[in-house]
Structure formats: structure tokens, C-alpha cells
Amino acid sequence: MKKWVYGFIFLLVIISQGRGLQVEITILDNAVEEGAVCLDGSPPAYHLDRGFGNGANDWLVQIEGGGWCNSIMDCSTRTRTHLGSSKLMETPRTFSGIMSNNHSFNPYFYNWNRVMVRYCDGALFTSDVEDVDPANNLHFRGARIFKAIMEDLLAKGMINARNAILSGCSAGGLASILHCDKFKALLLPFATGRVKCFSDAGFFIDV
After folding, report:
1. What is d(CA 139, CA 85) in angstroms, rounded to the nearest whole number?
2. pLDDT, tens digit, for every residue of 2-55?
3. What are the angstrom distances between the C-alpha of 163 and each of 20, 88, 184, 191?
4. Which candidate, 98, 103, 174, 175, has a CA 20 to 30 Å from the CA of 121?
């Protein structure tokens, strides 16, 4: 009988954690003026859940994963999904795992400022092409998206970060490696503590 009770309690805990925290989306409409747009030309976006208590000045910035596109057809296909257009991004977004605000499941980061950077440029936030081919109307502006979102977060308090981590999983993990130095350069003149980067499954081995 005890096994059934413990199993039921465990199941309830897993289900409650699975729902996660629902965090509304922030659309950076003003970033369009700087050319910081998704593949389809829509504005970039992120989700922010504010920190509290002794984590109010700590920041965890998580880059969304989702592979990448390597052909016009592939990139065009992404414009019809949330990986290429902020118009199709779900809102609110579920925060779970290291993004959770549950101390029991996420004791180290639960009360930090936690950010999910939405991925919609198809090139790991590295692209920066001014011209747009009218034949496909694809915008390759990922580098500008990264810059615009980081500047917005700095203005919202990240400039005073005590500790800051740039992280990501899969393609987001690779992006966290590619942009680690840039992230540190943005924060080190201001941050009073540590600036680190963490890549989760961000190495892709060609075999």
C-alpha cells in the first residue's frame, strides 16, 4: 500500500512540475527599426520572469534550441513555424527545469531573473545580411536580434547583474558557445560578480 501512495505522490509532483510556470512573451517591436528581425521579417522576442529575494540581481539567459536551416527551401519552411516567425510563437511559454521558479526542483536558479531568448533566425544568431532577396523575402539578421535583446535586458536591470549566465540546449547550447565572448563583453564593464556561459548538448560531432 505504501508503494502505491508514494508512487501516487511522485506522479503528482511530476505532473505539477510538468505544467511549469507560464511566462508571457515580450515582443521587441522597436528592434525592427534596427533591422533586428526574424526570418520572415517579424520582430524578435523573449520571455522574462523576474528574480526575487537574494536572486534579484542574478541573471540566467537561456537561448532556445531548434537546429538551423542551410538552404532557401529549409529557411522558407521555418518562416511558417515559431522558429522563423514571432507571429507563430506560443505565449505564454512554459518555464521548467533550470527555468523553474520552484525551489524544490531548481534550488540554484529558482529566484534568479530567468530569460528565454526565442530563436527565429535559423543561423544561431550569427547572420547579418542587409539585403533581402525579393524572390524569397528571407531576412538573415540573427546577430542583430542577439544585440537588440541583450540591450533590452541590460536596460531592464541586467546591467546591474551580480552574476550572469548565458546558456542553451542543443542548437541553443551551440549559440551560447558562439556568443559567450560577446555576452561577457557586454556585461563585464558593469557586472559586479561573475559572468559565465553554459552549453548543454551544444557540440555537434560530424561522424
Report:
1. 11
2. 444 344 434 334 444 456 899 999 999 999 999 999 999 999 999 999 999 999
3. 24, 32, 11, 7
4. 98
What one-letter code names the amino acid at 114?
Answer: R
pLDDT in tens, 173-197: 999 999 999 999 999 887 677 999 9
Q: How many CB atoms lie within 10 A of CB 92?
A: 13
